[in-house]
Amino acid sequence: METPHNDYTVVKQLSSVKSKRFGQVFLVKKPFSEELFVLKTVEKSNELGLKQLLNEAQFSFDSRGLPEIIDIVDSADQYSIVKKYAPGISLSEFWLSVKKRHRVTKLKEIVLSLEPIFSALEKNKIIHGDVKPENIIIYETSGKLECSLIDFGLAFYLNQIPNRKTLFQLAYSAPEIILNRLNCANYSTDVFSFCLVTHRLFSGKLLFSNSNPALQTQLQITYPIERPFLFKKNLWRVLEKGLVKHQFRKPPNKYSSEELDTLLMDAAGKRYSSFNELAKEISKIY
To answer: Which of 29, 93, 126, 273 measures 20 to 30 Å from 14, CA to CA?
Structure first.
């Protein structure tokens, strides 16, 4: 299988062969080397995919658990980035092997590993914007668990708010992301998403999941989040604060821009102000 860069050979394709909406992803290596990399490539005719990959190319780190871009390939009809490979499996896949009695312990280990990652983002005024189980990679060896956070296609700097439209479902996103009011985002925005991820892990269900995308989005924005039946009380107490959102009495598009921003920012201000704050509370769960 060919890649858009002759310096790399494909080990395997990581993205679905049928899914080309956001481009293609390959696990690659250089000839005569066993070091692995991830190559993400998109046709320039794919405007949405190209925009996301160009955005992702802005975010390269020299920090554990965060992506480091080592190469960018810009040809006439394709755009590609090459990143260091983060070994492991997705949080979704990892959680399938976690026994119910060990879930709280594993959650604490995951949060402990993620805390310095989100702290590094906060230090650089970065919102990931797409925290979900598939973007959290778990690597466990010799009893030690380490996490990586991947896919920065929707990330942005708080002091450089992008002008973009939300063109697809964001099942784990805070209302300010879904409504594309990125100026209302703060560090609690990613905290909200991680709390939704945790809710999914312990309840086994994605909140507000619906076959009708428009209805699902409406529920995400307007419907209250309630404690699931048999959900641990002390875990729910922690998640409840991280999942604060405004309860709209009318459709959001019926508010003025200023009113909507005020309501969204007021709600965000009632959540944990940082991932570190959330991590401290999760560490107390028994």
So the answer is: 126
